[in-house]
Amino acid sequence: MPYCPNCGAQLQEGESHVCAQNQEQAPVAARTFEKDVLVKLLKNPFNALELNPEKDLIYGVIGFASSVIGFFIWGWAQFATLLNAFSAILGFGGGFPTFSGSGTWGFSLRFLLLGAISLAALLTSLWLIGNWCGAVKRSPRETITRLGALQFPFGACFLVAAFAALISLMKISLLIAALTTLVSLLCTVEAAIDCFQVAKDNRFKFIAYGMVVYAVAVGLIAPLFL
Predict the structure, then answer these.
(1) Residue 169, phi-psi category: left (phi > 0), alpha (psi -120 to 50), beta (remainder)
(2) Neighbours of 90 (CB within 10 A)
(3) pLDDT per residue over 37-78, tens digit each?
């Protein structure tokens, strides 16, 4: 089924098509923050595909930030708990992990940078390859709004993993974090296929090239900051 390259609407054979992108539209006012939108994203992250890039960019930014911050807090919880356990064994203290100490802060900051670089590289890679392989071209704003907002529930999952680490359930914490990362990646790729309307014949190429560009980007950029 062919699609309009501008607005993404399906084109029916034998019927004329009036492209919405070519019509003058009144400016769309930015939506004020609504917690109900975040609740919907928590229940189903694919609700992000229904967001309007002209007024819902804030939810893309929130989703992106929540995932990165959640990953950062999980990294801190892992390192602080391990450091606290070794300190207790060596007789230097113990108790509940704290955010004190330059070593703990410095190491945890790497998780913040790694999370931001990794997620930014993923969205950028999918945007580049999606505009190449997909039937619909999307702007950076559309990509950030929809694929960024989709990350919001996974930030909450990283917080659960962090809590598990703080109560010394390290294996469970690692399992939750690993599953969160995997499911986030799968959902983001699936949402990108829908967002860019990638045809079945192009999906393998989209996924393969997208992951290659993503891996190369992280491999080149991350060492510069970590």
Answers:
(1) beta
(2) 9
(3) 999 999 999 999 999 999 999 999 999 999 999 999 998 888
> What does the alpha-carbon distance between residue 93 and residue 98 come to, in Å, rounded to a whole number?
12
Question: Helix, strand or coil for residue 10?
Answer: strand
The SS3 call for residue 3 is strand
Report how far residue 214's alpha carbon sits from residue 126's, in angstroms, rounded to the nearest whole number: 8
Closest by CA to 116, choosing from 145, 155, 78, is 155
Alpha helices in the chain (DSSP H): 35-43, 57-89, 102-133, 140-143, 149, 152-166, 170-195, 200-225
- Report how far residue 55's alpha carbon sits from residue 52's, in angstroms, rounded to the nearest whole number: 6
| Chain centre to alpha carbon of residue 77 | 21
CA 173, 178, 184, 190 torsion: positive or negative?
negative
* Bridge partners for 10 per DSSP: 3
- Unique residue bearing structure tokens 């928590």: 42
pTM above 0.90, yes or no: no
